[in-house]
Amino acid sequence: MDRISRKELKKDKFREELASTVEYVGLHRQQMVRYGAIVVALVLAVLGWRYYSKQKAAERQSVLQAAMDIQNRQIGPDTGNEFLPTYPTVEARANAANKALNDLIAKYPGSDEAQIAYYFLGVAATDTGKMTDAEKYFKVASEEGNREYASLAKYSLAHVEYTLGKPAEGERLMRSLIEKPTAFVSKDQATLSLAKLIGPVRPNEARKLLEPLLTSKSPAVSRAALTAISEFPPQ
């Protein structure tokens, strides 16, 4: 009897809770519909933003690829073939590539693609001997958000600084890469580069930098270290 009473009590409690819930929904239906609509709107907004972000990323990447493709076009007379576009001179091709990269930067400021565009503007400036311009572009790229791309720009900037007669700044940049390597610039790569940069004037210090790399697990790294050491002035 006692067991049945407890069972019945449970049923009665469930009926009371159900009735209470139905009553609450009935009394607050308008509020619940309103809040439910807000939740649905937020979910749709998030999903829409994700889709929009993916679309914009794909768009930026397409624009960047088109700008970079210009550098691969042939130099020569117009063939009339739209699939094999050409430029009359190297300078004309460089100007077209620079315009495309600058247009990308203006259209998508602050994006990873804009950071990459600054880097390639620096590369183009280096190729044409415009080292001051290269320094400017690499500095911007090295200070932008993506750490991996920034490290690549910093690596190039270090070499440019040496070329411009700023060895102290170049060394500082390269040492910062040794301390904080990335997927694009490894510690071994930065160490090799720093040793080569300081080797002509501080060969003993450069050798000390490279000695640990002689026993590297990577044959390529150990060979590069050995070659570099052999090119330093005698002790």
Tell me what the structure shows.
The chain has 235 residues and is an all-alpha fold. The chain has a single domain (2-185), classed as Serine Threonine Protein Phosphatase 5, Tetratricopeptide repeat. It has ten helices and two strands; from the N terminus they run ααββαααααααα. It has helices at residues 2-27, 29-70, 90-107, 112-127, 131-143, 147-163, 167-179, 187-198, 203-210, 219-231; strands at residues 74-75, 86-87. The chain has a two-stranded parallel ribbon with strand order 1-2. Helix 2 (29-70) runs parallel beside helix 4 (112-127), helix 4 (112-127) packs antiparallel against helix 5 (131-143) and helix 5 (131-143) packs antiparallel against helix 6 (147-163). The protein is elongated, with a radius of gyration of 31 Å. The model is unreliable at 1-11 and 32-42 (pLDDT under 50).
Layout of helices and strands:
Elements: H1 2-27, H2 29-70, E1 74-75, E2 86-87, H3 90-107, H4 112-127, H5 131-143, H6 147-163, H7 167-179, H8 187-198, H9 203-210, H10 219-231
Parallel strand pairs: 1-2
